[in-house]
Amino acid sequence: MPIASRVNIVPLDFDDDELLGNMSSSISQAFQIPTRIVPMDIRLDMGRNRQRDQLNSTWVLSQLLSQSLNNSDKILGITVHDLYTPILTYLFGEAELGGRAAVVSTYRFRDELYGLPANKDNLEKRIEKEAVHELGHTFGLVHCLNFDCVMHASTYIEEFDYKTNSFCPLCVSLLDERTNT
Ligand SMILES: [Zn+2]
Ligand SMILES: [Zn+2]
Question: What's the 44 CA to ligand 1 centre distance in angstroms?
């Protein structure tokens, strides 16, 4: 697998610049590669299911790939819209395993959705973990059994809050193998 030279972060109906900046630094730190914010002209209404009021995440991945020419860059879309696939009711994010593209959504990370007061800090921590997790998949990492590890599969918000935003030693060594060969 070629060494990724950069992670391009693509805001898709997402305008919180402060959150984008913090997420960029987290990603850059986790993978030791540069990041940049790259706006793309993707017509989200084409991938939207009006009945479900959700965005098809697999469609988003295909759009990100079709607009990104540099084969060594990873591409991460971030959106406020709720994501789904035809077989999954909802997703926090989706990625191509060992590929280039990933997408994450803040929709399910908002405390308001669970009847709690809005908490930007919680939202930011969760989306950063999810972004690192999905990008980890693009580097070929699979789910990790270690509860602390960012590659642990999280179904519930509580599990997101428990895990850290970094890789466990096993995942670090797998990541090194994949980025240094
Ligand atoms: Zn995963
Ligand atoms: Zn791990």
Answer: 23
For the stretch 122-148, what's the b/e string if a residue is b when 16 or more beta carbons lie within 10 angstroms of its beta carbon? bbbbbbbbbbbbbbbbbbebeebebee
Question: Which domains are assigned to the chain?
Answer: 6-142 (3.40.390.10)
Q: What is the CA(142)–ligand 1 centre distance, in A?
A: 7
Flag whether pLDDT at 2 surpasses 70: no
Q: What's the confidence (pLDDT) of residue 3?
A: 65
User: Is 130 annotated as catalytic?
Assistant: no
Q: Which of 96, 130, 134, 159 is catalytic?
A: 134
| pTM reported for the whole predicted model | 0.95
Integer Cα distance of 104 and 165 in angstroms: 15
